[in-house]
Structures are given as structure tokens and as C-alpha cells.
């Protein structure tokens, strides 16, 4: 069994002998052998991060690889990733420093594609599904008077249908103003104002809702 140093010397001597047998006067070949020998020294050298034992490099703590020139990863990395010089590169669908965190929750519930974006996996849901794991059904048919997504609301009563042309003018889809913005545009009521006077801004025209009218209410 050759040690690292003896092995290199043996290989180099063999290369030199072979070269001498071929042509003792060929200087170009001698240069090639020297370069090959240097290459072997570099490739088999354990460097400053390991020692050669029984013809193999035994790395110091914190280093790994055949030449002890690679940084190791946590042992958990091998379960769902590959170690690349100290960095655990996760397989599709896994996240985290050691690739131990599921990247796409519930496998996107079979309603989406798990994709990598900015170093993180996420679900791209197919049409009709939403949520971080694509498990939330959306109301897609907005003219059949059926609660297709099982949330208790049908057609235009479901906010998911508000982008549908059939619901553009539906009362439940008309946008409303922010109450704070409405208050900032108005003179604040006096300290002696009645309850009705203090809250009537809620039902005034162009206020925060569109389905109630002033004439339906009274100060009394």
C-alpha cells in the first residue's frame, strides 16, 4: 500500500521510465512528464485542510471532499438537497437552510405548479383555485345561480365574480370609499350633535356604501 507521498513518487518514476524507454533525447516529452507530475501533485495534494493517510486525504474538521477543499453541509441536507461547497441546494419542493422545510405546502393540492422564485418555492395555482397551497376554490361561473365554490354565495354576490362582466354593475361589486377619507372631507359634527348627525355620513351620497339612501332614514 502506497502512502500519498510514495504513491506520487512511484507514479512519477513510472512516467519517467516510460518516457525514457520511448525517447531518451526528446526534451519536449520530458517537459510533458514534468507538467504531468506537477498536475498529479496538485490533484492529489490534501492541502492545508487535511492529511494523507493510507493513500487517502483525511480532512480536518470543517472540511470535506477528496482533496479536503470543500465546505461540508449539515447531514440533513442529503435528504432533500445536494451539498455544493457548504451550501445546501434544495430539490424541487423543499426550502430552508438544510432543505428540511416543505417548499410548496401540500404539494399545491394538485391544483398548481410548484415553482422557484427568488430562492423560495411557491405555488402557481391553475385557474379556479387560490391560496398559498391552491386549496381555495374560486367562483368561476358567475351566471348559473349556483354556489360553485361552496362558500354560501352565488354569482355576483360572491366577490370573486366582481371582475366578471356580468357583475360589473351589481350592487355588491360597486366600489366604496374609505370611511376615514370621507370623514376628512367633512366638517366634524359639533359636540352636541345627535347620534344620527354623527353617523349619517355613512349613508350619504358618494359615501362608504351604495345600497342605502338618505330618504330611508330619519333623525327621529
From TrEMBL:
Task: Name the domain of life.
Answer: Eukaryota
List the disulfide bonds in this chain. Answer: 104-114, 125-134
Keyword Isomerase listed: no
Q: Which is one Pfam family of this protein?
A: EGF_TEN
Q: Which PROSITE patterns match?
A: EGF_1, EGF_2, EGF_3
Q: What is this protein called?
A: EGF-like domain-containing protein
Give the InterPro entries listed for this entry: EGF (IPR000742), Teneurin (IPR051216)
Domain EGF-like per the UniProt entry, residue ranges: 100-135
Q: What are the entry keywords?
A: Cell adhesion, Disulfide bond, EGF-like domain, Glycoprotein, Repeat
Q: Does the keyword NADP apply?
A: no
GO annotation terms (biological process): cell adhesion; motor neuron axon guidance
Amino acid at each position: 500500500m502506497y502512502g500519498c507521498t510514495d504513491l506520487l513518487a512511484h507514479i512519477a518514476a513510472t512516467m519517467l521510465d516510460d518516457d525514457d524507454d520511448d525517447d531518451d533525447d526528446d526534451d519536449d516529452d520530458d517537459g510533458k512528464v514534468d507538467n504531468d507530475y506537477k498536475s498529479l501533485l496538485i490533484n492529489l495534494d490534501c492541502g492545508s485542510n487535511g492529511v494523507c493517510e493510507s493513500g487517502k486525504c483525511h480532512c480536518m474538521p470543517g472540511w470535506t471532499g477528496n482533496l479536503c477543499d470543500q465546505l461540508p453541509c449539515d447531514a440533513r441536507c442529503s435528504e432533500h438537497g445536494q451539498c455544493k461547497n457548504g451550501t445546501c441546494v434544495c430539490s424541487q419542493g423543499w426550502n430552508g437552510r438544510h432543505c428540511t422545510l416543505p417548499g410548496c405546502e401540500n404539494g399545491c393540492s394538485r391544483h398548481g405548479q410548484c415553482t422557484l422564485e427568488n430562492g423560495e418555492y411557491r405555488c402557481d395555482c391553475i385557474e379556479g383555485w387560490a391560496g398559498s397551497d391552491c386549496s381555495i376554490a374560486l367562483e368561476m361561473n358567475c351566471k348559473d345561480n349556483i354556489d360553485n365554490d361552496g362558500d354560501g354565495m352565488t354569482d355576483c354576490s360572491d366577490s370573486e365574480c366582481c371582475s366578471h362582466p356580468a357583475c360589473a354593475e351589481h350592487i355588491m361589486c360597486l366600489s366604496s370609499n374609505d370611511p376615514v377619507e370621507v370623514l376628512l372631507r367633512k366638517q366634524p359634527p359639533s359636540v352636541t350633535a345627535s347620534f344620527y348627525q354623527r353617523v349619517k355620513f355613512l349613508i350619504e351620497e358618494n359615501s362608504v356604501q351604495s345600497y342605502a339612501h338618505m330618504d330611508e332614514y330619519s333623525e327621529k
